[in-house]
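Data deposition worksheet. Section B asks for the primary sequence of the deposited chain exactly as it was used as input, without tags or linkers unless they were present during the calculation. Section C holds the resulting structure in token form. Section D is free text for depositor observations; keep each observation to a single sentence. Incomplete worksheets are returned to the depositor.
Section A, Depositor: J.P.
Section B:
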Amino acid sequence: MSIWVAVLLGIVQGVFMFLPVSSTAHLVLVQHWLIRHEHPLPAPDSAEMILFDLVLHVGTLVSIIVVFWVSFKVFCVKCVHQFLTWTGSPGSKSPGLYPRLFLLGMFSVLCTGILGLSFKTAFEHIFATPAMISATLILTGVLLWWTDRLKPRRRGLKKVNVKVAGIIGLAQGLALMPGLSRSAMTIVFALFTGLKRRWAAEYSFFLAIPTICAATLLQGMEVRDSGGLGELGWGALLTGFVVAALVGIVSLKLVVYFLCRARLKVFSFYVWILAAAILAGVLDISL
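Section C:
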């Protein structure tokens, strides 16, 4: 993979990672287009290309930490403090809000992992099927449209329970399919459970950190066992990582702006137009 292709894919990931329009779908579509125009790339559904996509996702995790640095710092500090206080007080029944949220987040990741590993082969098949990506894009648009019609949510962080965490985790697992946006699915289903928009966003984006890191580690082990990076190189991986991180900061700030104002449906039109263009053959990306 050439450096300019890594830069292009890093920009695509950075722009679309947090916009609720599925960054994976856009990566796959661009990869199909590049291969069609005879650029040397592994197939989008190959182990090494999926790993490259995940490395780009890890790059955008840096964006989450930068944009939500204050909340991230508070969460980490209070989580450690409350846990130590709980372990030092044998009579205390609860470890506190922040350790409990951490455990609920890990439960969400567990639900994602169970669903993702159970349907891994089926989900990866969609990477090679543009028509299937169109269908999942249409579904993403429907969910975004529906979300903005919801009445104000009332559930705060103290009322997040195992059921809520499980629903969000399963929604994130479904988003492993290209075309179903991870941010859209987790935010939408968090809102369906009644979680306030601010907390739905922060839970969604913080949940991405352990989920994407775990998926990248597992995919990296698979690539190692299958013979290495192949046509990819460490330079391309590093370039894509850095570009995705920088561009992702702007993208994340934009989606938070629209979410807090219940304006996510503006992205519905985009994904519907994109899906229609693929189905109509206007975007000819077949291999």
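Section D:
The two ends are 18 Å apart (CA to CA).
The first helix runs from residue 3 to 16.
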